[in-house]
Amino acid sequence: MALTYSKVVLREIPSSLPGAALRQCPSGRIPDLERAREQHRRYEEVIRSLVPEVHILPADDTLPDCCFVEDTVVVCGGTALITIPGHPSRRGETQAIKEAMQRLGLKTVELVGGATMDGGDVLFTGREFFVGLSTRTNQEGLSQLSATFPGYPVTGMPVMEGLHLKSFCSMAGPDLICIGSSKAACAGREVMEREGHHKYTYLVVPDDIGANCLYINGTVVHVGNGDTFPMSAAVFEQLPCKRIALSTPELNLVDGALTCCSVLIP
Asked: H or E element: which one contains 243?
């Protein structure tokens, strides 16, 4: 399956994000709401330049992480698997996403029982799924994803550091996986190479968060090259495809990254 998309769903940033969004390092600087919204608007502009149909859902201030829509659904073909996010505070986010997927004509399937999954733990390569087993995603979630998409192999791997699998890897092109340089990233690559069902090329960047990029219809959207991860940004310059540098430092403060803010639909 080619990594091409006709639609995308985004969600606006709630005013509650700075003070209440989940974060791994709660002692760090609080995000600035207006800067976060400006960076998100720039994100939207970039997405609109790449995808024909963009749908924006309104924010819900009772759900401070709701702009990170990737975690609520996994879309493959014409099916949307609605997740049960691993953190209880995020489970109210899925209803609006389910309704959006149905309006767009996708078949919806929901995780049930004790399964948990954040979409940030799911890497679809176009050929198979890699699923991070993390504090947010469990084996039952992986098993139900496998049953939902039986046409694709599914390989699980432990996430030893960071929040999600995509905290250190993502797709940067057809059969091209961008991956960070930490011990966790290197361990993840070993699993992909040993247990994956296809062979991939790897684009290695020094910063794990720099490995979180978007490949959309022939263009790579990657971390900016100013004062935000310049060494990782420089690695993308070797790619022959069109590239767009984009920084979201305010969202990074609450564990947000480029893939987190959109649901891409074929």
From this structure: strand 242-246
CA distance 151 to 173: 21
Residue 203 corresponds to which amino acid?
A: L
Residue 222 annotated in active site: no
- Number of Cβ within 10 Å of residue 199's Cβ equals 9
Task: Read off the pLDDT band of 31 (50, 70, 90).
Answer: very high
Task: Give the list of residues 6+ apart from residue 45 with CB closer than 8 angstroms, or none.
Answer: none
Return the DSSP state at 175. Answer: T
Q: For residue 260, indicate whether it is catalytic.
A: yes
User: Measuring CA to CA, which residue among 46, 55, 66, 69 is closest to residue 6?
Assistant: 55
First vs last C-alpha separation in the chain = 10
pTM of the model: 0.97
Marked catalytic residue, from 164, 178, 213, 222: 164
Question: Residue 50's closest CA among 251, 246, 255, 256?
Answer: 246
Give residue 25's pLDDT.
Answer: 80
- Is residue 224 scored above 90 in pLDDT? no
DSSP state for residue 43 in the 8-state scheme: H
| 266/256 Cα distance (integer angstroms) | 23
Distance of CA 108 to CAs 73, 77, 98, Å? 9, 11, 7
Read off φ and ψ for residue 194, nearest 5 degrees.
-85, -40
Active-site residue (options: 67, 76, 260, 261): 260
